[in-house]
């Protein structure tokens, strides 16, 4: 079966999602909404970097896309939360389902703002549509839960993302505080920000494990540059922040039981006492289950010069591969645990390139 799909927003993750839609054998691209007037009128293939023209031209007017009655819209637009909610409600009320990474709290609807949940559910009811918000990649929800299913007793769950941002652009460097004073708190770890990013995922896992969390707790560490060195984004002075580690933990009885952490470095040799990426790669992911028996799963993308790229791409691909499940789902708000598994169905190539 072929599904008619629209796409909304063409930032970095959005372009990756757009390419995945264009190249998916079960999806037909209906239209593309962009927020940049310079992209309006361009062929979707040019925006996605696929080369072969599609004949689908980008527009700044969402009404044109909604009029085509797509079954699902891939929504990756950033912006103020209120505007994102307005956009999602408009899509859902029109009858199109949504796959999105733009409204992080909706990863776990049960803990999200009640007013927002009511608005989205009402829009789903009006349009008879389904809405799915996913987090970054598949590691923070499904893989820990799958490993936990082979455990007799559980003590802790830890999900770690490790990346070397030597090629990071200025936005990444700024968010992580790289190059700034070692005593300065980077934007990405300002109070409440890590919990906003990762808290919903922790609560989703906790619900599935029937763990009644007491609260969420944040922590972070900074590592200074041992000497001055240069990266594409600029010079990092000796003593300035050159590596960052932060954690969000779900607490139970005064101890962390479900933790998500991120380790970011500008050089692979920095902070050697922090978790190292698996298999000698610049970056990767790790899932650890403490219990009986203990489990550890390491995942990396071999040969990736920039370890942030596979993670971003995985997030985009997970959204796109969820389209058939969302198109067939009952109306309402969903999580990856209320839908059939998202697989690489029909993605196997008949011949190697």
List keywords for this structure.
single chain, alpha/beta, Rossmann fold, 7-stranded parallel β-sheet, 6-stranded mixed β-sheet, 10 helices, globular
Descriptive report:
- The protein is an alpha/beta fold and 353 residues long.
- It contains 10 helices and 15 strands.
Protein structure class: alpha/beta
Main sheet: strand order: 3-2-1-4-5-6-15
Based on CA inertia axes, which overall geometry fits?
globular
Count of alpha/pi helices: 10
Could you say how many structural domains there are in total?
Answer: 2
Element-level helix/strand string: EHEHEHEHEHEHEHHEEEEEEEHHE
Q: What can be said about this structure in brief?
A:
The chain has 353 residues and is of the alpha/beta class.
Topology:
Layout: E1 3-8, H1 12-23, E2 27-33, H2 44-48, E3 58-59, H3 62-67, E4 72-75, H4 81-93, E5 97-100, H5 114-127, E6 130-133, H6 142-148, E7 153-164, H7 170-175, H8 193-208, E8 215-224, E9 229-231, E10 234-236, E11 241-252, E12 255-265, E13 284-292, E14 295-299, H9 308-321, H10 323-328, E15 332-334
Parallel strand pairs: 1-2, 1-4, 2-3, 4-5, 5-6, 6-15, 7-12
Antiparallel strand pairs: 7-13, 8-11, 9-10, 11-12, 13-14
Helix pairs in contact: 1-9, 4-5
